[in-house]
Specification:
Elements (H helix, E strand, L loop, with lengths): L1 H13 L3 H14 L6 H11 L24 E10 L3 E5 L2 E12 L2 E8 L1 H8 L7 E12 L2 E14 L14 E2 L12 E10 L3 E5 L2 E12 L2 E8 L1 H7 L6 E11 L4 E5 L4 E4 L8 H8 L1 E2 L12 E10 L5 E4 L7 E4 L2 E4 L3 E2 L4 E11 L4 E7 H8 L3 H20 L6 E10 L6 E11 L1
Parallel strand pairs: 4-6, 7-8, 11-13, 15-16, 22-24
Antiparallel strand pairs: 1-3, 1-5, 2-3, 3-4, 5-6, 8-10, 8-12, 9-10, 10-11, 12-13, 12-14, 16-21, 16-23, 17-21, 18-19, 19-20, 21-22, 23-24
The structure holds zinc ion.
Zinc ion (ZN) binds next to loops.
Length: 433
């Protein structure tokens, strides 16, 4: 991008087209047997054409020249890595900070920007690979390394119009979820969130920490991701089915497979991810195909295929909180949601239980909500209407027509606490006639 702008400037000043300038630059590189960088070759072409080229380099220094205590220096850098903005509290005052690893051809340093500048960084879309011209930086030594921060009166330009500077490329390793190997560092994975688990707190050497696990996947497979501390809150906001890009993560071998770890250097970004398979496709693909006779207690992510042989009697719907969609309880004081409190008029969601036979045995498959709706064939509104008009018994009788229908379900084995029978809770339902 930097080079393109340089070529454009030379073209403008010389009255030639960009293609002509590009050809001259290539010829120059060829003449020097590939020893010239693009910048170097462009610089020579500009000189040949008699064009003034320069860099305003008043206070600018190289990263290698940074020393403890330096103030108000300018740097031209490439963002090699950018971390999630963090909130902090100092002397009772709240603020934001954002850390980056930035580099020029002489080295790299940690850069911290504060408060309003954090907002600007986000708004202007600064990311790995962005070029920044930083005005008024301060340098300070920390743990034997010089770190930089943008001063209170500092400023920065994103993708500045500066010519002829060789900045290192921001290398990032894009890895597929199914191709993670132990010991990888600084990797990026674009994937879809399949499932998010509950965050837990832990205590390690007297220090409190938080950790959360979530499952991601792409067309090559699925992987377990683990986010620590500052990133936990961000991971909790993720929604199942959402496409994300995880940057700056590392891998470690976990209980079963290699896991992706999101440490302090990692960052989560939302992406469009049109090319990623749907959650259903991935869960179906990664599920273990089993016969009913082989089902065991605790089995989860199992795929069963069989025929519906009976639609079990039951209510066909259950009450949920109209606010959050969560389950509600009937207490003496009334209907209560754990999260929202008293519920005046609960909403309803479909639930259905069907007996499935796969030739090796039979099991009751229970489906809730959208998945139950696929079997019942009614949306929430129709369900409500029919329920009051004729009641579930008559509806279930009619549903017996489904017997013989082929069904594929992905789900888990569960012990029903009331009937003490083993049933199969379906997360995904697919019917075939
Ligand atoms: Zn609620």
């Amino acid at each position: 991008m930097q080079e393109k702008r340089v070529i454009g400037q030379i073209a403008k000043k010389s009255g030639k087209t960009e293609d002509e300038i590009n050809a001259l630059v290539e010829a120059k590189k060829k003449k020097f047997s590939g020893l010239l960088t693009d910048s170097g070759a462009s610089f020579m072409v500009a000189k040949d054409l008699g064009i003034e080229v320069g860099m305003e380099s008043v206070k600018r220094i190289n990263i290698a020249a940074l020393k403890d205590g330096m103030q108000n220096v300018d740097l031209l850098v490439r963002v090699m890595q950018i971390f999630s903005p963090k909130e902090f509290e100092k002397n009772g005052k709240r603020g934001m900070l954002c850390n980056m690893i930035v580099a020029d051809s002489t080295g790299e340093t940690r850069l911290t920007v504060w408060n309003d500048d954090v907002e600007k960084i986000t708004k202007q879309g600064v990311k790995r690979g962005s070029v920044l011209l930083l005005h008024n930086c301060n340098a300070k030594e920390f743990n034997g390394r010089v770190q930089t921060s943008l001063a209170y009166k500092g400023s920065f330009d994103v993708e500045p119009d500066v010519m002829f500077v060789d900045l290192p490329e921001a290398k990032s390793k894009d890895v597929k979820a199914g191709e993670l190997k132990e010991g990888m560092n600084d990797v990026n994975v674009s994937a879809r969130v399949i499932r998010i688990f509950k965050a837990t707190e832990f205590d390690k050497n007297g220090k409190k920490g938080k950790v959360i696990n979530f499952l991601i996947g792409d067309k090559t497979g699925t992987a377990r991701a683990t986010a620590w501390n500052d990133l936990v809150e961000e991971a909790q906001k993720l929604v199942e089915g959402e496409a994300i890009s995880i940057e700056g993560a590392y891998t470690k071998s976990g209980l079963k497979d290699v896991e992706l770890h999101l440490g302090w250097q990692a960052r989560i970004e939302k992406i469009e991810g049109k090319e990623l398979p749907t959650v259903e496709e991935m869960r179906k693909k990664s599920a273990l195909v089993k016969k009913i006779v082989n089902l065991e207690k605790g089995d989860s992510d199992v795929l069963l295929e069989g025929k519906i042989v009976l639609v079990n009697k039951g209510a066909l719907f259950y009450n949920v909180c109209p606010e959050c969609g969560g389950k509600v309880q009937k207490l003496d004081e009334g209907i209560v949601c754990d999260k929202c409190g008293e519920v005046k008029e609960p909403d309803i969601r479909p639930v259905i239980s069907v007996r499935v036979d796969d030739g090796t045995g039979q099991i009751d498959v229970v489906a809730y909500g959208k998945e139950a709706g696929k079997i019942i064939g009614l949306d929430n509104e129709d369900l409500k209407k029919q329920k009051t008009e004729r009641g579930s018994d008559s509806m279930i009788e009619e549903l017996q027509e489904m017997c013989g229908t082929k069904i594929t379900v992905v789900g888990r084995v569960k012990q029903n606490t009331y009937s003490n029978q083993t049933e199969f809770v379906a997360g995904i339902v697919e019917l075939k006639n």
